[in-house]
Structure to design on (638 residues):
């Protein structure tokens, strides 16, 4: 195996009419890594995966899997398992029949043994004679994952595997993905859920076809020199309005019964400002790490400020 | 000290039950929601969330039990319920090939609005959606965040006292989600009751109160902070390592820790019942040292609502 990246998207550009789906997106997935492509709908996540699979041709840049473009290379295609967001299973076939179908397409040798292992891995043995459309959403996702694994790929590309999946099934899917990772697979998955990015070794935060950042979740948090002070209090709305008026406060976010307050100075714990809150009962104050949602929003704001600055310079402003 | 007058109850649910043949989809659900409250319903698919929601919207009659929504009885006056509530889902049926203003007019007509009343609410919707110049645009040509607010404006056009939101911001840009929940908070501050069903944890965090629902029953209920405190005594330990697989193996073999799982470039595990935080951290350190796995110092991390949910469901299932 080479030491190069398992998956590499380099300055990828692709327009559909006026829409720039990929606008210079870059990231790379290292062998044996769980990598998250994280961003909202319309960020270019699906187009990036489809470019890597050779299903979408790039206008510029490159998309490589295991060192080369997939193109029409059958052996390279065989090294990749792809779980698409929409089409996954044949609803009127049973669990067994779905696995057999995907196995036959990929000409898997000794299919019965492979199927038995995948059914055990996904704990679907009891349901093997059920029609796929009779399974719960979580079980359907597990079956779809099993189908993408039937030909023993080395790289998995998963397009929003956890979207619409409930918390219990989602935790189970992450357990399965962890086991795959430990067995040596490289996994690239896309998700709109920023809290899920925490579960990845590294993530690319993407927006509008571009990469905002590509790092470990811990590095992303550390990269922003800011702390967040969490204040649990009542009435929280009053506290928000009072703190938002403080010149030392950059930003206040209200979540139900608590506030996340970002001070202008990193080391400012805002203790006296919180103590001064009139007509507010404070039950807890502590410093918390910024969430990846915070980091995402800050990165977007920084990029927008940079672009606005570039526009000003172009127009001859100082 | 005098107790503050408690705000009026707008959703009153008592022993609400729904069977489908042998399946008990909703099992004696009881709760209240008040004016100005954002109440979240969090649970897996099939737990009874949408069955409860359909009963509260007057779309499905209960097998037994009762519910009053905005003063109307869901069994005796389902049509009155429908008039007094608003509903918005993530895949909300805006008409994409119509103009934004056409969609507003359509919803106004559905609720029997016309003349000055409709004009007043259209003006409100124009301001609330924040992009007044674009009401003449086709919905499909509008940015996602604007479509989101337009869907909300349609649901609120007839000034309902209670609004039901079904995973309203899945997949939207985080900045837009924050802006959306600022609107929701203003709505709640004006006295509207917001009832949110979701399994998207970032949304549940915005609720004043969250009810966790599993197998048709409410298994826990409280503010997000109070729910997280349910796990308080059993810390979640995090270690980071360049060899997460080896770290997982080392920690998985330590009896004072349980549920070890890969988490990013590291491992998360829960303290076993009765094991204090300090001992759990020391146990992780010892296990990793003994196995010779390079690692960061173990730290306790705050639980998420997902951790709480999984734990509560596990306890319930252990009991039954």
């Amino acid at each position: 195996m080479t030491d190069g990246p398992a998956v590499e998207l380099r300055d990828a550009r692709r327009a559909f009419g006026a829409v720039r789906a990929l606008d210079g997106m870059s990231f790379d997935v290292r062998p044996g890594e769980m990598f998250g492509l994280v961003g909202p709908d319309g960020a270019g996540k699906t187009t990036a995966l489809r470019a890597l699979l050779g299903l979408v041709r790039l206008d510029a840049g490159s998309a490589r899997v295991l060192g080369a473009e997939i193109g029409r290379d059958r052996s390279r295609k065989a090294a990749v398992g792809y779980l698409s967001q929409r089409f996954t299973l044949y609803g009127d076939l049973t669990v067994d029949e779905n696995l057999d179908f995907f196995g036959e397409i990929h000409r898997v040798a000794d299919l019965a043994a492979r199927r038995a292992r995948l059914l055990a891995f996904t704990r679907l043995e009891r349901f093997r004679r059920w029609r796929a459309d009779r399974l719960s959403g979580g079980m359907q996702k597990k079956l779809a994952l099993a189908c993408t694994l039937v030909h023993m790929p080395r790289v998995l590309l998963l397009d929003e595997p956890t979207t619409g999946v409930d918390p219990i099934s989602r935790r189970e899917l992450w357990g399965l993905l962890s086991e795959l990772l430990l067995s040596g697979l490289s996994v690239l998955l896309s998700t709109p859920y920023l809290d899920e990015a925490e579960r990845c070794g590294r993530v690319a935060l993407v927006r509008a076809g571009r990469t905002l950042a590509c790092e470990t979740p811990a590095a992303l948090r550390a990269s922003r020199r800011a702390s967040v002070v969490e204040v649990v209090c009542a009435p929280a709305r009053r506290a928000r309005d009072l703190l938002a008026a403080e010149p030392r406060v950059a930003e206040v976010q209200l979540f139900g019964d608590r506030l996340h307050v970002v001070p202008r100075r990193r080391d400012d714990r805002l203790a006296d400002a919180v103590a001064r809150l009139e007509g507010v009962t404070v039950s807890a104050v502590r410093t918390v790490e910024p969430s990846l949602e915070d980091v995402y929003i800050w990165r977007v704001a920084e990029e927008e400020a940079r672009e606005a600055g570039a526009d000003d310079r172009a127009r001859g402003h100082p | 000290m005098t107790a503050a007058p408690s705000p009026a109850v707008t959703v009153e649910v008592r022993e609400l039950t729904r069977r489908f043949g042998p399946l008990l989809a909703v099992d004696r659900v009881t709760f209240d929601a008040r004016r100005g409250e954002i109440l979240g319903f969090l649970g897996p698919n099939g737990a009874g969330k949408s069955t409860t929601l359909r009963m509260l919207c007057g779309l499905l009659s209960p097998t037994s039990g009762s519910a009053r929504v905005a003063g109307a009885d869901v069994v005796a006056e389902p049509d009155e319920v429908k008039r007094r509530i608003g509903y918005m889902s993530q895949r909300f049926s805006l008409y994409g090939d119509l103009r934004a203003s056409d969609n507003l007019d359509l919803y106004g007509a559905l609720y029997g609005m016309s003349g000055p009343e409709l004009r007043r609410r259209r003006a409100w919707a124009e301001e609330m959606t924040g992009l007044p110049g674009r009401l003449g645009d086709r919905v499909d040509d509008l940015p996602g965040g604007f479509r989101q607010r337009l869907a909300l404006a349609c649901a609120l056009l007839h000034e309902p006292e209670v609004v039901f939101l079904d995973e309203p911001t899945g997949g939207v840009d985080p900045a837009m989600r924050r802006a959306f929940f600022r609107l929701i908070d203003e709505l709640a501050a004006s006295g509207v009751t917001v009832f949110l069903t979701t399994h998207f944890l970032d949304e549940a965090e915005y609720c004043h109160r969250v009810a966790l629902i599993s197998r048709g029953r409410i298994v826990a209920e409280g503010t997000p902070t109070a729910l997280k405190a349910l796990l308080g005594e059993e810390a979640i330990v995090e270690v980071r390592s360049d060899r997460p697989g080896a770290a997982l193996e080392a920690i998985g073999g330590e009896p004072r820790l349980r549920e070890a799982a890969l988490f990013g470039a590291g491992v998360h595990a829960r303290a076993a019942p009765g094991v204090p935080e300090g001992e759990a951290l020391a146990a992780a350190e010892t296990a990793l040292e003994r196995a010779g796995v390079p690692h960061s110092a173990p730290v306790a991390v705050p639980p998420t609502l997902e951790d709480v949910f999984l734990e509560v469901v596990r306890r319930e299932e252990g009991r039954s």
Q: What stands out?
A: Chain B has a mean pLDDT of 89. Residues 174-189 of chain B form the longest helix (16 residues).
